[in-house]
């Protein structure tokens, strides 16, 4: 934002991203258009900095795993028949549901989101593998899609944790 004048040139302030939010001041010759834009009242758009979209994405993914876990724990007769057809023991749907609930909780919390994404990927890879091994190729599409979404969530989480600037060699 340009303000004030020093030596007939406006002083422009830029807030740099990062933990320290350093302020960089530069002097330059601003055009009338730039000065008009800077003078216009601007509403701060800090909403997305407070709640980044990657958190919303993580919560939606967590909600999916809460639903999936619930459908496995409180399994319908059709789902129980699927588990029997695939050769799993009678209690295996409980283990699957609890694993999905665990992935949901881990994904919902930013501190454990990467681990939750890894667990979610493992669950979806196992689900896709199960249906592929039994020749149910059309049924492999949803778990593979969710596997990709969980992988994307893990990558976004990993990327957000990386240092913002590469170390100088």
Report the sheet-strand fraction: 5-15%
Helices and strands, in order, run as EEEHHHHHHH
Q: Overall mean pLDDT score?
A: 81
Q: Helices and strands: which structural class?
A: mainly alpha
Question: For the CA atoms, what is the radius of gyration?
Answer: 25 Å
> Major β-sheet, in short?
3 strands, antiparallel
- The amount of helix comes to 55-70%
| Arrangement of strands in the largest sheet | 1-2-3
* Uncertain stretches of 5 or more adjacent residues: none
Through-space gap between termini: 34 Å
β-strand number: 3
> What is the global morphology?
elongated
Number of helices: 7
What do you see in this structure?
This protein is mostly helical. 60% of the residues lie in helices and 10% in strands. It is built from seven helices and three strands. The protein has helices spanning 32-39, 47-50, 53-73, 77-85, 92-108, 113-133, 141-161; strands at 2-6, 9-15, 23-27. It has a three-stranded antiparallel β-sheet with strand order 1-2-3. Helix 3 (53-73) runs antiparallel to helix 7, helix 5 runs antiparallel to helix 6 and helix 6 (113-133) runs antiparallel to helix 7 (141-161). The two termini are 34 Å apart.
Short account of what is shown:
The protein is mainly α and 169 residues long.
């Amino acid at each position: 934002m340009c303000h004030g004048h020093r030596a007939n040139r406006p002083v422009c302030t830029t807030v740099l991203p990062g933990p320290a939010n350093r302020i960089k001041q530069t002097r330059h010759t601003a055009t009338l258009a730039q000065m008009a834009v800077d003078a216009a009242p601007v509403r701060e758009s800090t909403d997305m900095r407070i709640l980044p979209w990657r958190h919303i994405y993580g919560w939606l993914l967590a909600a999916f795993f809460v639903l999936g876990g619930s459908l496995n724990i409180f399994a319908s007769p059709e789902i129980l028949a699927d588990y029997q057809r695939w050769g799993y023991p009678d209690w295996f749907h409980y283990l699957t549901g609890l694993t999905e609930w665990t992935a949901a909780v881990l994904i919902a919390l930013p501190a454990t989101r990467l681990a939750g994404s890894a667990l979610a990927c493992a669950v979806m890879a196992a689900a896709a593998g199960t249906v592929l091994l039994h020749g149910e190729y059309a049924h492999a599409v949803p778990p593979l899609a969710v596997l990709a979404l969980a992988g994307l969530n893990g990558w976004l989480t990993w990327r957000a944790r990386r240092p913002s600037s590469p170390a100088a060699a």
